[in-house]
Amino acid sequence: MNSLTKNSRAVGIQLCSHTVIIGLFIIFLLVSSSWLAAQPYDLLLQGGNLIDPRNDIEGKMDIAIKDGKVAAVQASIPASSAKQVIDVQGLTITPGLIDIHGHHFWGTRPDAYLSNSYASLPPDGFSLPAGVTTVVDAGCAGWRNFKVFKTQTIDRSKTRVLAFINIIGGGMAGGAVEQNLGDMDPKLTAMEARRYADHIVGVKLAHYSGEDWAPTERAVEAGRQANIPVMIDFGRQNRHLNLEVLFMEKLRPGDIFTHCFADVRGRMPIVDDEGKLRSFIKPAQKRGIIFDVGHGGGSFVYSQAVPAIEQGFRPNSISTDLHTGSMNSGMKSMSNLMSKLMNIGLSLREVIEQSTWNPAQIIQREDLGHLSVGAVADITVLQVANGEFGFTDTAGNRIIGDKKLIAEITIREGKVVWDLNGRSRPLYKP
């Protein structure tokens, strides 16, 4: 056989080999495409107990996610239909928690309290580990510095950050800054709220110590002009302003009274000295006044919360008033606060509703707080732990409870952003 024939045969064999390889590769692509087509979901949470108050769902459900949205909620979804499956048997699935009172304008300005200073907290470090996917900053920035807050915090956080804009132009900088009636401008506040309507969901008034209604009236006027609610931290006056007048005459239905279980200087508490819920509280709530927990470092005492709940009062929303002081004292976190309320009379479903669908409605963001098909896939997976747990109020009193909520997994827009025990990861195999 001459060399030309040998070379031709070798070339033929090589071409045949390449053809086989290409053919096998095409088959592999077809099989892979077919396999991927059979897996329409990116992520599947399987076997959990779903509580979705907005859709009145409470029971064992699987939930599938595609492209950052809820794609299916069914009693049983095959594991083969998803690229990734997380087993959440024995755990509780809820919409992503919404904390409508926190302080997140963190920065390094000295003597500025919560407005671009040291006592505020970056959201991602203190919200996602508690199961919170949306925070609402409660008035740290005003119209003068809201753009700084947006650039510095809102635009740089995985957590969804919304805000109540302070009626004080300079924000919640403490001291004399928050007493400046001349800086409480309804028109400019409303203009900024409309300018950043995707982020600003309300107006905040706090810490005013004067004995007049002007700050309340100006905050409400800004809310009226921007068509958003007002959150008011009421009190600190040397002489009590009448709480019934506030609820029945000054605030509008949909406006928010935060720190509802506080007993602080300069403010009438909702439970009187005899342990009775004041007669106008339930009518005010029926009128549409929103009662928000706003625990904080000094605004939640059992002597208010326990008798109020025993007498049938329920807060509309649970919030933390998160900052360095509350985080490191009795409040700790959103999941800890929800646990505390469960141990003094609220049910699991109630604390979930008051931390998801209720706050979504209060801030006029009904795209959030539920797990309807097509909704953003913000999801919290909780363990309801049984045991013996201690919970303290801001007066230093402790109760012993037998239930505690622990955030196992937090999902933000379909991505796992917190996984306490690595349930979304494969087991290590040497």
CATH homology-level superfamily of the largest domain? Metal-dependent hydrolases
Q: Kindly give the count of domains.
A: 3
What is the makeup of the main sheet? 8 strands, mixed
Q: What helical percentage do the residues reach?
A: 25-40%
Main CATH class of the largest domain: Alpha Beta
Q: What coarse outline follows from CA principal-axis ratios?
A: globular
**SSE order, one letter for each helix or strand:** HEEEEEEHEHEHEHEHEHEHHHHHEEE
The share of residues in extended strands comes to 15-25%
**Contiguous uncertain segments of 5+ residues:** 31-36
Structural class: alpha/beta
SS summary, helix count:
12
**CATH fold assignment of the largest domain:** TIM Barrel
CATH architecture classification name of the largest domain? Alpha-Beta Barrel
User: What's the number of extended β-strand segments?
Assistant: 15
Mean pLDDT: 93
First-last Cα distance: 54 Å
Radius of gyration: 27 Å
Overview of the structural elements:
The structure is a single chain. This protein is of the alpha/beta class and 430 residues long. The protein has helices at 3-37, 123-126, 146-152, 186-195, 214-226, 243-250, 281-287, 302-310, 324-327, 334-342, 348-353, 357-362, and strands at 41-52, 57-66, 69-74, 82-87, 92-95, 97-102, 132-138, 160-166, 200-206, 230-233, 256-257, 290-291, 379-392, 398-412, 415-419. Residues 31-36 have low confidence and may be disordered. Helix 7 links the parallel strand 11 and strand 12 (290-291). Helix 4 (186-195) runs parallel beside helix 5 (214-226). The protein has three domains: 7-38; 41-91, Urease, subunit C, domain 1; 95-409, Metal-dependent hydrolases (TIM Barrel). Strands 1, 2, 3, 4, 5, 13, 14 and 15 form an eight-stranded mixed β-sheet that branches. A seven-stranded parallel β-sheet has the order 6-7-8-9-10-11-12. The protein has twelve helices and 15 strands.
